[in-house]
Amino acid sequence: MTPMRALYKPDAAPGLTMTERPVPVPTEDEVLIRVLRTGICGTDLHIRRWDDWAASAVRAPLVPGHEFFGEVVRVGSAVRDVAVGDRVSGEGHIVCGTCRNCRAGRRQMCIRTKGLGVQRDGAFAEYLTLPGANVWVHHTDVDPDVGALFDPLGNAVHTALAFPVVGEDVLVTGCGPIGLMAIAVARHAGARFVVGTDVSANRLAMATEMGADLGVDVGGGDGAAALRTAQAGLGMREGFDVGFEMSGAPSALPAMVDTMNHGGRIAMLGLPTGEIGVDWGKVVTHMLTVKGIYGREMFETWQTMSSMLQTSEVLRDRIGSIVSARFAARDWDEAFAAAASADGGKVVIDWTEI
User: Fold this and answer.
1) Residues 173 and 97 reside in one and the same domain
2) Is the pTM for the entire model greater than 0.90?
3) pLDDT digits (tens, 9 = 90+) for 297-337
4) CB 44 within 8 A of CB 117
5) Which residue is catalytic, options 38, 43, 159, 301?
6) Which of 2, 27, 38, 46 is flagged as catalytic?
7) Residue 111 belongs to what domain range?
8) Going by DSSP bridges, is the β-strand pair 214-217/240-245 parallel, antiparallel, or unpaired?
9) What is the C-alpha to C-alpha distance for residues 89 and 78, in angstroms, rounded to an integer?
């Protein structure tokens, strides 16, 4: 094959460059995928900036990117149930298969996980290789933009279904793309009231479009007070039953803990950037449960989100509307700027337009 175009980080320093790279060659247990769409994740922004996290976690040189939709063009001899021509997304966490958790079927808890686009070349390119076991084949038609969202949608589904939500009052702190998708999933799954918080008026408006009953601006400083006002406005007589902390903001978890009902359950996906001061006495006396969420359950979350999108036109439309901008691959710099603004939905890159 002729060389492919790829976004490349040649060394451990800020920046990315669009350049030519060799087309990767799949091993016997891998497939080669022609990339059609990619989503830009916060991880990708960290890698481009080359902040402290990126310097500690990323191996350069590297082609980043892990959210993708594409078409299989070559299949290794040991790969099963994947065929040339399949339209696919992929699980970007590549596990060892031999640690205790892997052997017990808890692959999302593998202690030796390697990340696509983090510790091995990823999806910001015309082609990528992926183990066949990590490939998710779309057996029904899916919009390419939505197919590129399956990785972050999986984060949202994993978080939103960590605890039962039917008939429950749900608080979602952080209305970035994954928080917005979690709102849509909670509404689809039968929550009573869903409240989203953010500091962006645009994202709060999107939260109501996703099915939230209220979007609460917590930019004033006292998030717990704003949430109590929201609870009163909805006629809630007690606190929230289930919370999804999606922001990592230092004020979000304390406000959530302060407004949960006794016995409330919290699923945390947002990664804190520093220490968070939580009233642990209230966690104990209110008998709260706090559960960390990372990635997706392999592969039950993938099955669940595929099934929900297949059977619900409303959910499918809501998830599709999360894409607020699409850029040609040649305009990747503008795409990254749009994603970094943190004021809209998901930004997608079209790799058919180099």
Assistant:
1) no
2) yes
3) 999 999 999 999 999 999 999 999 999 999 999 999 999 99
4) yes
5) 43
6) 46
7) 4-149+322-350
8) unpaired
9) 19
